[in-house]
Amino acid sequence: MNEVHAVIELKITPQRDCGFGRIAEKVSKFEAVKACFLMSGGYDLLVFAKGDSLQDVAQFVAQDLSTIDGVLSTATHFMLKTYKTGGILEKLEDARLEVS
Fold first, then answer.
1. How much is the pTM?
2. How far apart are CA 54 and CA 6, in angstroms?
3. Residues 38-50: pLDDT tens digits?
4. Strand, helix or coil at 34?
5. Contact criterion met (CB below 8 Å) for 12 and 71
6. Longest dimension (CA), the chain
7. 7, 15, 44, 59: which has the highest count of C-beta atoms within 10 A?
8. Order of all β-strands in the sheet with 45-51
């Protein structure tokens, strides 16, 4: 089985008395979420998620994340190829076609 990994940016509305914490905790409880970070910049939370397919992750974003009260918008980026992870470079293969 090939897993699909995605990075999801969330813009959220801070809540009175807890800021971003309550929404971040709710997001973090989903099984698909592997990591969740409060960020500076143009979005508030950065979520690393995993699913069985592109559709699986898209459905998770549409049905679970985007429907949480306080989530204003999401932007999903699918990871297509790994070059380095955990400080280790992946073996790079030359995937170019031969020209004759």
1. 0.86
2. 9
3. 999 999 999 999 9
4. strand
5. yes
6. 67
7. 44
8. 33-38, 45-51, 4-12, 71-78
